[in-house]
Structure formats: C-alpha cells, structure tokens
Amino acid sequence: MPTSRDxxxxxxxxxxxxxxxxxxxxxxxxxQDYSLELSQRIEELREKRxxxxxxLQVEEEEKASIQKDLVLxxxxxxxxxxxLFHKYAYSSEYDKTIEEVETAYAKILESCQALxxxxxxxSIQIPDKR
Length: 130
Known about the structure:
Elements: H1 4-11, H2 16-23, H3 31-125
C-alpha cells in the first residue's frame, strides 16, 4: 500500500518501483536528471499554490462584497428602526386622539339624549295651543 509520501509520485503517473528507483542512486542517472525532476516537482507545487491563490482571491472578493452589503443593510436597518420608532409614536398619538374624541363624542351623545328627553317632557307639558 502506498504511503502518503508515495501518493504524489503515483498520482503523477509513475509506478512505485519508478519512484523508489529515482530515490536511490543508480548507474546511468545523472545529477541533471535529479535536477530536472526536482524542478518539475517545484513547478507542480507552484501551480498548486497558484490555484489556491486564485481561490483565495475569489473568496476575498466575495467576502468584500458581502461586507459591503452588510454595511448597506446595517445602515438600512437603522433607517427602518428610526422610521418604525417615529411611526409607532405617531400611531400612539392617533390612538390617544381617537380615544379622546370618542370620549367627547360619547358625552355629546349623552347630552343629546338628555336634551331630547327634556324636549319630549316639555312638549308633553305644554298645552296644545290650537
């Protein structure tokens, strides 16, 4: 079974035997071959790093966009909270005014009923002048 160190070599299309042979010095393998393979490995690492950097850039841009939206939404929320505060105050004032008007209206109705009663009573007591 390959170890995690061997996985990189195997995933690059090389057999375990090839990888083991590359690690141990053998006749016919020059320093130039080692240098070439090392350069290839470094380039692979750079490509992976560049992929990660691209992903980081995309996520950083998304984060900045979300933060900008959050600032705008927070500002809008504060505006709405202020508006709601004032509208609840207006609503409370309307409730108070309506209650006062209804109370006054009820008193006016009572006065009208009393006046109507007095008027009926007086009209009965006044003799018919015909």
